[in-house]
Amino acid sequence: MLLVDYSCALKLATPLAILAAMREGARYGIAIKGGRYLEALKEADTLVFDKTGTLTQSSPKVAEVIPAPGYEREEVLRIMACLEEHFPHPVARAVVHKAEDEHLQHAEEHAHVEYVVAHGVASSLHGKKLCVGSRHYIEHDEGVDLSILDREIRRQASKGRSLLFMSEQGKVAGMLSIEDPLRAEAAKAISAMRELGIKRVLMLTGDDKRTAKAVASSVGITEYRAQILPQDKAQIVQELANEGCKVLMVGDGVNDAPALSASHVGVAMSDGTDLAREVANVLLTRPSLDGLVYARKLGQRTLKRIHANFVTTMTLNSLFLLGGLFMLLGPAPSALLHNLTTIGVSLNAMRPYLPSLLPGEEAWAIQAYRLKFKQNGDNKRVYSFFRQY
Q1: CATH no. for residue 119?
Q2: pLDDT at 369 > cutoff 70
Q3: What is the mean pLDDT of residues 333-358?
Q4: 50 is catalytic
Q5: Both 89 and 120 in a single domain?
Q6: Quick one: 174 and 221 in the same domain?
Q7: I need a labelling partner for 48 at 20 to 30 A (CA). Which of 125, 234, 319, 355 fits?
Q8: pTM to 2 decimal places
Q9: Burial readout 36-58 (b: 16 or more C-beta within 10 A, e: otherwise)
Q10: Percentage of the chain surpassing pLDDT 70?
């Protein structure tokens, strides 16, 4: 009996399972910053997405330039590019690129530019106050009447485009519609996450309700919050947590960092900001939401294997203890069986959790393997080798 215990197998198998999962996650482009986050990935039942840069490709382009009555289209675009060129934001870069494509000179004639976090920019030109930013900033914070563009706002929002407005001296001067393509895999990934046990999916965005509705419906999300401020994101995540939800938050921007911290497990995209990547518990190192699905599977399968190893260890070693108690096993067989159990559960813990070939690699690998044995005409080896996939 003294030669049999539970500690060896339990102390080895569990950390080996976690380390093997983290190593395999890295191969799939998933950087997991600790074993407890594998458990959090498995426990999550509510999925919260930030829209821009997460559900979209973070490569926005200016689709249309719409001046207000009394303003010229080229002048609106030129001034907006002049103000936006100071900031390394994807939308700002899109405005500047649009002006460059149309060969508009936007030399600096304005005064000091003030950056209003998560809202826009403000400056003055020839003694007139200029503001460029979101609808909330222009309409609510600056008190500018946008009703004159209401028809265009509805038309653009129905297409799922984001809107950027400019005001001059408290009057609307025009707006840009920004088109940021959705990630091709977004709808499929959300559907897969639901199949993996996610009960609730929520999208957060600073866009208006029409744009939010169009984007959400195109990826299969029924619940969304529009015109959200940065501080609201963290508050919404906290409210969900207070309701008993285990929140998995996916974001990529500076504004998402508080929400990522407040969630049960935060996931950041590879092309996100440094702050978001630092705060997140899981980092997708490839620009694809497929990694989110693999991370969920990895968490579920790791915890399942840890549980299976625990049950196996307790069952077998209990039998060996009973064998020693009733003199059915001698010292040598007891030691041998105990150590074989330890080795067995440890090897089981290190087995791959996900397919050994990444999606998209199968065709390449089969072709390479076929070429290798082409001279011998040994196609049977090719198909038998890849049959498991």
Answers
A1: 3.40.1110.10
A2: no
A3: 87
A4: yes
A5: yes
A6: no
A7: 355
A8: 0.79
A9: ebbbbbbebebbbbbbbbbbbbb
A10: 88
Where a domain ends, among 144, 179, 214? 179
Task: Give residue 49's pLDDT.
Answer: 95
Mean pLDDT over 245-273 rounds to: 90
Higher pLDDT residue, 178 or 119?
178
Residue 173 lies in a domain: yes
The continuous run of DSSP H or E covering 114 comes out as strand 114-116
Distance CA 360, CA 362 (A): 6
DSSP 8-class letter at 182: B
Sheet bearing 282-284, strands edge to edge:
30-32, 282-284, 265-269, 247-251, 46-50, 200-204, 223-225
Please give the span between the terminal C-alpha atoms of the chain, in angstroms, as a whole number. Answer: 45
Residue 138 located in a structural domain:
yes
Q: State the catalytic residue, choosing from 5, 45, 50, 207.
A: 50
Domain containing residue 240? 30-57+183-294
Tell me: do 72 and 98 sit in the same domain. Answer: yes
Mean per-residue pLDDT of the chain: 85
Which CATH number do you get for residue 254? 3.40.50.1000
Burial call 172-198: b when 16+ CB within 10 Å, e when fewer: bbbbbbbbbeebebbbebbebbeebeb
Taking only the tens place, the pLDDT of each residue in 159-173 is 888 899 999 989 999
